[in-house]
From TrEMBL:
The chain crosses the membrane at residues 18-36, 42-68, 103-131, 151-173, 185-205, 225-248. It comes from the Bacteria. The lineage of its organism: Bacteria, Bacillati, Bacillota, Clostridia, Lachnospirales. This is ABC transporter permease. The keyword Cell membrane does not apply. Keywords: Membrane, Transmembrane, Transmembrane helix.
Length: 254
């Protein structure tokens, strides 16, 4: 599967390079602002990096769906089904590469913001001010009622929900390509199917929350989530992956 993942990641190499070049420009501008005492330039640069980190998180995930749709439209992915690999391994590589692309770009962007902020504090205020910043942030963190467990849980839940979005998009594309494979309206149908699937998942979740013990569990959780929410979304992700695999095997294999 490793070779398949590398192959899929190469398809989004151009977008990664564009994002990293833009990030490098922002870093140069930031440190130029620090070097020439231009607070405005430094502030705009760090703000751009922070907003960019959020933007690329969403963009790269959506791009994975768009690349999959393009592959099916241009028949590129059809050739993959001819490899001596199982459909599940091929489709799994596509899912994993889409998620990895998102995590790689988002992680690099966040690291750039963190290093720039720490470096600026050290450059301007020295080590003592840097340590004071860490102490203040830690104090605010504790007083806000959060701990590392909450942050890890929040990050995991965000990852799970975004994984659900990617899997929903993949299933919508496969459904559209198997129903209207030669139509010019396949893209529109895929978008509509995405929202239909998302609506169905949300409605089933609402019904689940009406179960007394599930509703009680939701109320007592600090983050508004419970183990039932995690179980539900994991099951939904697995179900979407399973349906996508069955359709790919029956409709897209050559």
């Amino acid at each position: 599967m490793g070779k398949l993942i590398k192959y899929e990641l190469r398809k989004q190499r151009t977008s990664r390079m564009v994002i990293f070049i833009a990030l490098a420009v922002a870093l140069v501008c930031f440190w130029a602002g620090i070097a020439f005492n231009s607070g405005g330039l430094a502030g705009i640069s760090i703000a751009a990096m922070m907003l960019g980190a959020v933007f690329v998180l969403f963009y790269t995930g959506i791009e994975g769906i768009l690349v999959f749709n393009r592959d099916l439209r241009t028949k590129q992915s059809y050739m993959l089904w001819m490899l001596p690999r199982s459909i599940w391994e091929i489709l799994g590589a596509k899912f994993i590469s889409a998620i990895l692309q998102m995590l790689i770009v988002f992680g690099v962007s966040c690291a750039a913001v963190a290093v720039s902020t720490a470096g600026a504090v050290l450059t301007i205020g020295g080590l003592s001010e840097f340590l004071e910043m860490i102490r203040t942030m830690s104090k605010s963190f504790v007083q806000g009622g959060l701990d590392w467990g909450d942050l890890i849980s929040m990050a995991f839940l965000m990852f799970l929900v975004w994984t659900l979005v990617i899997m929903t998009g993949f299933l919508a594309v496969i459904l559209a390509r198997t129903v209207l494979i030669k139509s010019r309206f396949v893209g529109l149908l895929a978008v509509l199917l995405f929202f239909v699937i998302d609506f169905a998942v949300a409605r089933v979740y609402d019904l689940m929350c009406m179960i007394p013990f599930v509703e009680a569990a939701n109320r007592v959780e600090a983050l508004g989530w419970s183990v039932w929410d995690v179980i539900y979304y994991v099951i939904v992700c697995l179900a979407l992956f399973g349906v996508s695999g069955v359709l790919a095997e029956k409709k897209l294999s050559v």
